[in-house]
Please model this.
Amino acid sequence: MTTTNQALEAWIDEVALLTKPASVHWCDGSQEEYDALIAGMVADGTMEELNQEKWPGCYYHRSDPQDVARVEHLTFICSEKKGDAGPNNNWMAPAEMKTILRNEFDGCMAGRTMYVVPYCMGPVASPYSKVGIEITDSPYVVVNMKIMTRMGTQALQKLGDSTDFVRGLHSTGNLDPEHRYISHFPETREIWSIGSGYGGNALLGKKCHALRIASVQARDEGWMAEHMLILGLTSPAGETHYVCAAFPSACGKTNLAMLIPSGPYAGWKAECVGDDIAWLRYGDDGRLWAINPESGFFGVAPGTSENTNPGALQSLKTNSIFTNVAVTDDKQPWWEGLSEPPAHATDWKGNAWTPASKTAAAHPNSRFTAPAQQCPVISDKFDAADGVPISAFIFGGRRERTAPLVFEALDWNHGVYIGAMAASETTAAATGAVGVVRRDPMAMKPFCGYNFADYFAHWMSMGGKSDKAPKMFHVNWFRKDAAGKFMWPGFGENIRVLEWIISRCKGEGDAVETPIGFVPAEGGLNTEGLDTDGATMTELLDVDPEAWTAELAGQKEFLETFGDRMPKEMWDQYHALQERLQSVSAR
Ligand code: OXD
Ligand code: MN
Model:
């Protein structure tokens, strides 16, 4: 396959001249191509065939043990001006980074095939989708990109002769972390990534394009690229609302995205539109509409089970790729939390493993790559060109104290402030210090391609564009009691909180105003059939002015990090919160 797109052709020639591959393969995205690539990897040992009877179409890849996660300290935003990257990013001047990278990429594909991977982020028919081209020397990346994006001829056709595409250059290089750079050039919409074959660093359509580059493009063009799931909920009365939610990692985002209503909520219908990324823009009707730019799930395997996420489990049973999980003796993938441990298995490093082993069988960041269309609760709007209209934005974090189960922002700007202050508290197990607050604004800390101060200003500007903008909420499934026990059951029961959120969007739902926003009034949240008693509910929804005053000090420190660039509107929110807290404390 070739192209008539001269800009594309010229770029491919330029890259081939630099990387010196033995051959160039233009990916058409066909099943035959996918099968041939898998067969090649099985033959050279980079992929293992799993038990085809029990796991049809599933394959296994073990990555280099030093290359198992995103590497934030090696991820750079190379804008012309350092201030445009902001204190939230690592920065290097583009010319300086390009000099380093040209050296790293020089001849790096010698003796290998260079794959040209055209992909479309978003439904191909959507005017809001964007085309990117990833050049890579990794067939593992190609097959993952086929699952995660609309890849191949369809993307090339959509591009036509346009020069408007994201240029992504990737090579696994020698996998030496000393020579690993995940670099973004937001002004020229380029990504150069070398030294890693891991998902987030190597599948350039996902975090690199759909969040870091797209966030800059979205600011320039008046839309939003966010690290958010998209979920539809239909009540027994047949009314559907869609919500977007942003949580930092390890807060149950994939579980919420694929929620299956049960018990007293069995009459509800939940649909997954996306589990990780949302691109949003205003429609002619004044509502904010979201598309999911991806077409697959790249989910964390450990902890995924029939109990925690039956939807995800169903999605990954066939035609999926597993990376760094364990493999049982009869070639089934296995990870901690999936089921009873097998008596014997091979761990993610390729070593023999038994339940008595001191180490985990699956790497904690082991992954499944599964086609979204296999999800039993995938939305029928998944491929809709306009996407879905959003009623609410939900921010969250993992807070043992301070943050109530749910609260609603007073207005849009207050909501932006709440999202900007989203944070997780570290647990003793993770760091040795309990309660250290790590800010992760809109869950975008590792993914915003520009200065957070400008990003908050962009968020604020988006609210003024319509009186039908979504309402904003904050949730916390992780509040603990004095004995250190989680007070809220979480998982499927989170639908109760979503029900209250949706009722608020409709101008209904009982709430009381507190200094931090509206919380459900007593009895406002449906607890029918739950073990959670009234006292626990009161504690879950409690807003402690003292704890919030301490929180305020941390917020101030965070805002100050950005100096003069932090918008005045953000400081206005800070002062307004301070005043509201002071007035209740004075009572
Ligand atoms: C992801 C992440 O992989 O946020 O989705 O790290
Ligand atoms: Mn993510």
Remarks:
- Residues 65 and 349 are 7 Å apart (CA to CA).
- The chain has a mean pLDDT of 95.
- DSSP finds 17 helices and 31 strands in the chain.
- Residues 70, 200, 249, 276, 298 surround oxalic acid (ligand 1) (CB under 6 Å).
